[in-house]
């Protein structure tokens, strides 16, 4: 009998549509369960938040003045506090509300793509960019904090690290931009609390400690051309001290560099920030184009701002924004999520 085993096209279409419907329902349910597990914990009380913040170093904001090398932000912004100077690193408590964090997660979650494609295993998270007109209120807020027009901001990025995922040592300036135009501020906001793992760690902050230049000593030094987007001062250990006084260094991430003059190695300090929902972290990865320092370092990099997203234990969500001196030369566009604007 002709075609008895054949499934009619209309049924095939229906089955197909059903399969797609089931798949997308399953995906939505998985995403909802995932979000639920990430936000399940009770929100931190005001007191708990203060206690957490008091664990960080506190530098009087009155000491922050525009130095001509870095962006002059609005030092009066509510919730702003400085936790490091030279390079300046700030926290902004409650930059986003709990509801805003969650809305952003809902918005971005269905559009994630692997971060791995362009970053050589430096990074194992997922991410997406959100269309600028869907984050107008947030951008207006950031523009106030940063003292820049909204047009200087890249499209909002949202990243998720599942357990064991990370973003290794890196700098935030980009290579291949036009002369003296690069990222001059990084502002990111944690979208959830993490009890364990996922800290953002600044790895090579300046230190007053003097060095002995001995084998096994912890040092950091500039490493040209080994980072995805730029160079910076990376931490490591002296492997050998040579007759001419120079040293061989094993970097902590497995790379190495030989015959570094003593004058080019230095002691360093680290600083870790623990993800807390709604809290912003702000620093200046690159010098202003008008700063004399911008000419001295490739990609305008402030070499002290090398940092990493440590391995996640609890799932971690973070939302990043970058500022350019005028119009961003990269990442201006994002996806239309169709979800409610923020
Ligand atoms: O995930 C983090 O803690 C930091 C993210 C970051 O450094 C970046 O996206 O450039
Ligand atoms: Fe970064």
Automatic annotation (TrEMBL):
Q: Which cellular components does GO assign to this protein? A: endoplasmic reticulum
Q: Which GO terms describe its molecular function?
A: iron ion binding; L-ascorbic acid binding; procollagen-proline 4-dioxygenase activity
Stretches of Basic and acidic residues bias are at 23-39
Q: Which residues form the Fe2OG dioxygenase domain?
A: 152-325
Write out the entry's keywords from A to Z.
Dioxygenase, Iron, Metal-binding, Oxidoreductase
Q: Where is this region: Disordered?
A: 22-51
Q: Which cofactor does it need?
A: L-ascorbate
Know the name of this protein? Fe2OG dioxygenase domain-containing protein
